[in-house]
Amino acid sequence: MYLPGFIWLEMESNLMPETEDWSLALRAAGGDMDAFTLIVERYQKPIVQFCWRMTGSRPDAEDIAQETFVRLYKALGRLRPEQAFPALLFSIARNATLNHLRGASRHRRRVAAFSRMRNQVADALRPDRKAQARDIAEALEAALAALPPEYREAIVLREYHGFDYQHIAAILACPVGTVRSRIARAREQLRQHLLTYGEDVL
Amino acid sequence: MNDDLEKYECVSARVDGENATSEEATSVVDDDDALMTVYRQYQEIGRLMRAVPAPTPSRHFADQTLARLSRQNKRNTGRGALVFAIAAMLLVALPAALWFVTITPQPSDSPQTFTGGEVESSVALDTTEDAFWALMPDAHPYSDLEQTMMLLEEVSLEQVLLALEEITLEAHQQEETALLYPMQEYGWQINGLAETPGMYSEMFLMLETLNDAETRTLNDFLRAALAQT
């Protein structure tokens, strides 16, 4: 269920009021490490999962997520409470993830891109693609991985983390119209990809 | 084709309850069976996405994060102590070197025969600061970070960002694990920096996160950028 203007974070406790987040952040800025630990424990799951969905690698996701919280701590003294805390944290995670994706060696990126293209061409040449659709989840994963990062991050923030367009725009530092367009294009690419496995997939 | 994209955008926004106008929300989808099919398929895609299990953080994630923070804080503290130590050494070494230069006669090119009288030196002694630093070619009067700040006064913000991006790629090509590009972390402040190029305090805080090798590399890039302007 999506609540307008709120962020639904699937945590072990219930919904997280933002004022409590900022209260913990202010305490952490004053050197209260217990408060900072609480922030980490509250947000570690969604941040790790966001990083994993962007990178596809669990070790990388945990590494980036740790770096996210470290950067958050270093920035605590300069943050403004009028910002939405979850959006702020995801913004830091997003930047850290993009750093990671950009930092991957050019050679590895070319190899990965070529591998994807080669698989797509090979799949297209096979006569019966329904026979290959053993696992729609795998197909969906492949389709997500094939999305450009700017589309992928938008659709991930929307579908998995429940942010509304305004918060996504704040995280991605772009206009709401751009968010709307990227999510739509992401969905359409995913739809087209999944439909190649058969009309009854969706 | 563009019309289709616009319609798909409306459909997609309707899935998220984010349509700009109520006319958009109803007429585009409800009046078109094909678009209604697309609407249901978009909803199904969301359901399939959320059904894919995602990993949970490792059990010691919070502890590892705190340990990482502690390590980085120690490194920054160590760097600050190093700067202080270098400054203290300079305060001692500079007068000592000047004293050494003033009392030690410079050898002349031609051989001298000692006749027992007073021998005047034929070399004019240079006791300026430049002469001191010339004796220590590997040293510099300013720390790496101070050099960076001085260079930042001369180069544009765009050149700084480009230099930091180059360092990011270079660092990973050298298989270092540190994630650079601190400028991008504070994206909401970049615009402010661009509008007020004199506000280097925020940039200074970001640059403090770089280690010595990274700072020297940044300085090299900035000097190269400055040389091209």
Strand content of chain B: under 5%
The first-to-last residue Cα distance of chain A is 21 Å
Strand content of chain A: under 5%
Count of DSSP helices of chain A? 9
Query: What structural class do helix, strand and pairing data of chain A support?
Result: mainly alpha
Oligomer: heterodimer
Low-confidence stretches of chain A: 1-15
Q: Biggest sheet of chain B, open or closed, and with what strands and sense?
A: none
Q: Uncertain segments of chain B of ≥5 residues (pLDDT<50)?
A: 110-139, 171-202
- Most extensive interface: A-B, 64 and 53 residues
Rg over alpha carbons of chain B? 32 Å
Gap from first CA to last CA of chain B: 45 Å
Structural class of chain B: mainly alpha
Order of helices and strands of chain A: HHHHHHHHH
Note down, in words, how this protein is organized:
The complex is a heterodimer of chains A (202) and B (229). The longest helix of chain A is centred in the N-terminal third of the chain and has 23 residues, at 33-55. Helix content of chain A is 70%, strand content 0%. In chain A, helix 2 (33-55) packs across helix 3 and helix 2 (33-55) packs across helix 4. Chain A has helices at residues 18-29, 33-55, 58-75, 85-103, 106-125, 136-146, 149-159, 165-172, 176-195. By secondary structure, chain A is mainly α. Chain B is an all-alpha fold and 229 residues long. Helix content of chain B is 68%, strand content 0%. In chain B, helix 1 crosses helix 3. Chain B is elongated, with a radius of gyration of 32 Å.
